[in-house]
TrEMBL record:
SUPFAM superfamilies: L domain-like (SSF52058). The lineage of its organism: Eukaryota, Viridiplantae, Streptophyta, Embryophyta, Tracheophyta. PANTHER family: TUBULIN-SPECIFIC CHAPERONE E (PTHR15140), UBIQUITIN-LIKE DOMAIN-CONTAINING PROTEIN (PTHR15140:SF37). Keywords: Plant defense, Repeat. The keyword Transmembrane does not apply. Pfam families: LRR_14, WHD_DRP. GO terms for biological process: defense response. This is Disease resistance protein RPP13. InterPro entries: LRR_dom_sf, LRR_R13L4/SHOC2-like, WH-like_DNA-bd_sf, WHD_DRP. The keyword Lipoprotein does not apply. Residues 2-43 form the Disease resistance protein winged helix domain. Residues 176-418 form the Disease resistance R13L4/SHOC-2-like LRR domain. It comes from the Eukaryota.
Length: 461
């Protein structure tokens, strides 16, 4: 895949110190990067000498603009309406473009790439140029354009409806409902990244089976879309599901008898988030879904599941797990500590409803970051010596019943930062210098307390 080749080239540039890594994800893949200052200055200098780039809009001339090949605009770039740009090949807009792009086609016969970061329209139509060459479109507000866009924007690679409050596929027009066909995405075979609206009104489930090149699919649910269509997406890398998520006619006795869901071997990230209906996910359906995601390394579950799937049903490559609103009755740590490559773990907002969590010796061998937030019933966090030997960052927030930090924390010599947010003042006083538990954290280079002074333990209320 082209993205894999690009990633390989990027890693090569990093190894040569021409590009600096900003952030890495849980699997240590590069998430953000930036150019080295010296390399950037050199590139800008050479580009200006060749009239390849102009970043000073106050000194624009017809001779300068005439050689521009690639244009990026962060606000209304009205110079397009005043100059011919015969060599222009691509343009990227970060604002609502309005009338600006209408002259682009006339400016250059070589123009073949257009990106719009923000599109806002109440009109029935959009400029013809959008149909032929738009590369990606992030919609902010669209009234009555869903069918129009999907029918005419055949070359789109990215389509983002996520910021639109509501898309009615029964479009209200003069108080009559016009039904959009279920194959509204039928002509968008080149689409690679689709961010579906968070709320949609449909008469029947929309078809996505022709989107065979899709790599990103966000806000998918089984109420508005067909579950079986996911199996057609052989290159899917990132899947975001909102509830409801239901596997119809589920066969619990033999999971292999159920219809295939995920066939992509490239899937790396999976999230399931509670939708507007507030429904939970059947643990059996979750187990079946995860058992088909053999290569994922990021898992986010922000939905009630009551019970974690057994480790054998979850990819051993998992590097990041986020659990929220899960309402687990059983301690999740004995299950989660068995994943050998897990580096990031977040438990928040009643992910666990019990009182005690225990981490065994040698548990979480590669865990680097642990965040425990808003577990209202948590009273004890126990660790055996040898647990979490690689831990670097520990955050505990809004766990007001937690009595103390485990004494075994003093054995974790890799710990660089301990952050406590909105914890009771009595809890904080034990950990400051001179406190009875200070010896547990005195080896940590950075201990941060945020908004702990005014809170009182629930035991004193």
């Amino acid at each position: 895949m082209a993205e894999d080749v690009a990633e390989r080239y990027l890693n090569e540039l990093v190894e040569r110190y021409m590009v600096l890594v900003g952030k890495r994800d849980a699997s240590l893949k590069i998430k953000t990067c930036r150019m080295h200052d010296l390399v950037r200055d050199l590139c800008l200098s050479k580009a200006k000498q060749e009239n390849f780039i102009c970043n000073d809009v106050n000194n624009i001339s017809s001779s300068t603009v005439g050689k521009v090949r690639r244009l990026a605009s962060h606000d209304s770039f009205m110079m397009i309406n005043h100059f011919k740009i015969p060599h222009l090949r691509s343009a990227l807009f970060f604002d609502n473009t309005g009338q600006i792009v209408e002259n682009l086609r006339d400016s250059s016969t070589l123009f073949n790439c257009l990106g719009i970061k923000w599109f806002d329209s109440d009109d029935d139509e959009v400029p013809e140029i959008f149909k032929a060459i738009a590369l990606f479109l992030i919609a902010h507000r669209i009234t009555g354009l869903v069918r129009y866009i999907c029918k005419n924007f055949k070359l789109l690679r990215v389509l983002d409806f996520e910021g639109v409050p509501l898309i009615a596929c029964k479009i209200l027009a003069d108080e009559d409902y016009i039904n959009v066909p279920d194959d509204v995405f039928g002509r968008m075979e080149r689409l690679r990244h689709l961010y579906l609206p968070k709320k949609i009104l449909t008469k029947s489930k929309l078809k996505l089976d022709n989107l065979r090149n899709l790599q990103t699919l966000i806000n998918f649910n089984t109420k508005d879309y067909r579950l079986g269509d996911l199996s057609c997406m052989k290159y899917l890398r990132r899947l975001g599901i909102t509830t409801p998520f239901v596997v119809e006619n589920f066969m619990e006795e033999d999971l292999n008898l159920n219809p295939s869901i995920i066939t992509s071997k490239h899937l790396r990230s999976l999230s399931i988030i509670i939708g507007k209906d507030g429904s939970h996910v059947d643990p059996r359906h979750l187990t079946y879904l995860l058992s088909r995601c053999v290569n994922i390394y990021e898992l986010e579950l922000r939905v009630k599941i009551s019970k974690l799937p057994e480790p054998q049903h979850i990819s051993s490559n998992i590097a990041s797990i986020c659990l929220s609103l899960s309402e687990l009755d059983e301690d999740p740590l004995p299950t989660l500590e068995k994943f050998p490559k897990l580096r990031v773990l977040e438990l928040s907002d009643q992910a666990f409803t019990g009182n005690v969590m225990v981490c065994s010796a040698q548990g979480f061998p590669r865990l680097v970051s642990l965040s425990i937030t808003s577990l209202e019933n948590l009273e004890e966090l126990k660790m055996h010596e040898g647990a979490m030997p690689s831990l670097q960052n520990l955050t505990i927030a809004r766990c007001r019943k937690l009595k103390m930090l485990p004494v075994e924390l003093k054995f974790i010599t890799t710990l660089k930062e301990l952050k406590l947010e909105e914890m009771p003042k009595a809890f904080k006083d034990k950990l400051v210098q001179g406190g009875e538990d200070y010896y547990k954290v005195q080896h940590v280079p950075s201990v941060i307390f945020q908004n702990c002074d005014d809170l009182v333990s629930d035991e004193l209320l």
